[in-house]
Design a protein that fits this description.
Blueprint lengths: L15 H14 L11 H8 L3 H13 L3 E4 L3 E4 L4 H25 L2 H19 L3 H19 L2 H18 L12 H13 L3 H11 L14
Antiparallel strand pairs: 1-2
Helix pairs in contact: 1-3, 1-7, 2-3, 4-6, 4-7, 4-9, 5-6, 5-8, 6-7, 8-9
Length: 223
Amino acid sequence: MSAELSPIELTSGMILSDEIYARIGAAIADGTFPPGHRLRDVELARQLGVSRTPVREALQRLERFGLVEIAVGRYTRVTAPDDALRRDTGEFAAYFLGNAVNLAVSRCSDEDLADIVGTVDAALAGIDAGEPAAVFAAASALGLLATRATGNGVFLTIIRETSIVVQRNLRGWSGVVARPAPRRENWQRLRDRIAARDAVGAEQAIRTLYGVTPGAAPASPDP
């Protein structure tokens, strides 16, 4: 392996298996471990400073989400998302984000609301600067902040399990867009609805933004 993961330093409350899953998953999501990259449990365990057992468990967990493929006794390697998987992931992310924002806006503190609005401002700044990666990062941050602000344990569990999958599958992809749309205007509408604590309006703005309004069909990814 050419890429090196830093050793895990256990802290109070840390769950080792979750940390290993997050570390390896993040390396896959950001391209440190690209599609086709071979993952060897012995080497990963050495880098992370842990035993092989929790590393194997993490790899099996990543396999369940389609991030790696395992041929027992032969190899474990990083997969590449195809267009169908990206479309499916985009639809899931858009609907989940809409539901999380709806719930968060209706119950979160003013401080949390300001943080959520700040992520939308970051997306708008990314659009104005012509930086798609910044918009993607802001959208990812919006999902995490909104989910935490729901205070709902099931939502939090789902985002912990799937955030890495969503980031890997959608990075560099336009997302689910039913038809050409004025993206900045849609993001601005989302900001206005969130700032006004219009939970239903915010959810609808997200569905319009990502083209998952009733009857909409997911489009092909941009080049």
